[in-house]
Automatic annotation (TrEMBL):
The keyword Metal-binding is annotated on this UniProt entry: yes
Protein name in UniProt: DNA-3-methyladenine glycosylase I
Swiss-Prot/TrEMBL keywords: Metal-binding, Zinc
Sequence ranges of Basic and acidic residues compositional bias: 116-125
Matching SUPFAM superfamilies: DNA-glycosylase (SSF48150)
Annotated Low complexity bias: 84-100
Highest taxon of the lineage: Eukaryota
Length: 330
C-alpha cells in the first residue's frame, strides 16, 4: 500500500503539509479529541501539597518548619508548646491537683482514724482498773491473770529508787539475765539466786572462783548458762573497784542522773522506749571498766527496775506513788 498523497494547506502562510487520514481526499477532517497527558510525579506532588487534608498539612508543615525556622534563627519550641498544649496542660494540672488533694484527704483521714484507734486500744491496754479486784489501774504488762509475785514486783519494787549496793548489784545481774529468762522466771527463782550468789554481795562474790561457781555441788547451771555466770563474777570484781573509787556503787550509778530519778510522762505502752541516750552512756562507761552483759537495753531495764527512771504509765497508780517516794527520800 502506497503512502497517502501530500497536499498544500489552503492558507498560504502555513507551509506545513497535512496527511489525508481517509479516502475523502482533501475534505477537511475534524481533529480527534486528544487524551489527557499524564503529568510527572513531581508535578503531581506539587499539587497534592496544596490539596492535602489539614492533618497531613500540619504534619508536612511541622516537618518543614524546623529547617525553615533554623535558617531564620527562630526557635519553634515555645510557639508549638504554648499554642498546641496550653489547654491540655491546664486541664491536666487541674485534674492532677484534684486527684492529689483527694489522696491527701484520704491519707490524712486514714492516718487520723488509725491514730485514734491506736490511742483507744492503748488506753484500754494501759490499765483496765475495773478488771482488778482492788479497782486499781496498772501498767499494760500487768494483767489480772499475771502471777501474784509478778504483780507484787510491779506494785512494790519496779520503779522505786534503790540506793543499797547489794540490791543495785542484784537488779543489775537479774537485768543481764533477761537474755535467757523472763522476769517471771527470775522472780520465781529469786531466792535460789540469792543463796548461790551470797545475797549479791559484790565483795563476797568477787572472792569466788570460776571453778567454784560452776561446780556440780552448786546448782547454778540450772539457773543460767556458764557465760552468764562468769559475767556475774566479773561484774562483781568491777563493782568492788568502783566502791573503792567512788565510795559506793550507789553514788557512782546515781551520778549519771544527778542523784534524781527521771520522771517520765508516758500515757501509752508504745511510748516507753527500750533504751535511751542515758542508758547508752552508762553502758559505754561500764564496758570501758570491764563489765560484761551490760548492753544499753539491759542497762535501761536496770534503770527502770532500780528507780533511776519512773516509767510507770500516768494511768498507773504506781506512777504517783514513785514520784511521792522520790520527794520523800529527798
Amino acid at each position: 500500500m502506497s503512502a497517502p498523497p501530500r497536499v498544500r494547506s489552503v492558507d498560504s502562510s502555513d507551509r506545513e503539509f497535512r496527511s489525508v487520514l481517509c479516502p475523502a481526499g482533501n475534505k477537511l477532517q475534524q481533529k480527534p479529541v486528544s487524551k489527557p497527558v499524564k503529568k510527572p510525579l513531581a508535578e503531581k506532588t506539587k499539587y497534592l501539597t496544596f490539596t492535602a487534608s489539614p492533618t497531613k498539612k500540619m504534619q508536612q508543615c511541622s516537618s518543614l518548619s524546623p529547617s525553615i525556622l533554623r535558617r531564620n534563627g527562630i526557635s519553634m519550641t515555645a510557639s508549638y508548646s504554648s499554642d498546641a498544649s496550653s489547654s491540655c496542660e491546664s486541664s491536666s494540672l487541674s485534674m492532677a491537683s484534684t486527684s492529689s488533694g483527694k489522696r491527701t484527704l484520704r491519707r490524712n483521714g486514714s492516718s487520723t482514724l488509725r491514730k485514734t484507734l491506736t490511742d483507744e486500744r492503748d488506753e484500754k491496754a494501759g490499765g483496765s482498773g475495773d478488771c482488778f479486784s482492788d479497782g486499781r489501774k496498772r501498767c499494760a504488762w500487768i494483767t489480772p491473770k499475771s502471777d501474784q509475785c509478778y504483780i507484787a514486783f510491779h506494785d512494790e519494787e519496779w520503779g522505786v529508787p534503790v540506793h543499797d549496793d547489794k540490791r543495785l548489784f542484784e537488779l543489775l545481774s537479774l537485768s543481764g539475765a533477761l537474755a535467757e529468762l523472763s522476769w517471771k522466771d527470775l522472780l520465781s527463782k529469786r531466792q535460789l539466786f540469792r543463796e548461790v550468789f551470797m545475797d549479791f554481795d559484790p565483795i563476797a562474790i568477787s572472792e569466788l572462783t570460776n571453778k567454784k561457781i560452776t561446780s556440780p555441788e552448786i546448782a547454778t547451771t540450772t539457773l543460767l548458762s556458764e557465760q552468764k555466770l562468769r559475767s556475774i563474777l566479773e561484774n562483781a570484781n568491777q563493782v568492788r573497784k568502783i566502791i573503792v573509787e567512788f565510795g559506793s556503787f550507789d553514788k557512782y550509778i546515781w551520778n549519771f542522773v544527778s542523784q534524781k530519778p527521771t520522771q517520765s510522762q508516758f500515757r501509752y505502752p508504745r511510748q516507753v522506749p527500750v533504751k535511751t541516750s542515758k542508758a547508752e552512756l552508762i553502758s559505754k562507761d561500764l564496758v570501758r571498766r570491764g563489765f560484761r552483759s551490760v548492753s544499753p537495753t539491759v542497762i535501761y531495764s536496770f534503770m527502770q527496775t532500780a528507780g533511776l527512771t519512773n516509767d510507770h504509765l500516768t494511768s498507773c497508780f504506781r506512777h504517783h506513788d514513785c514520784m511521792t517516794k522520790d520527794e520523800t527520800d529527798n
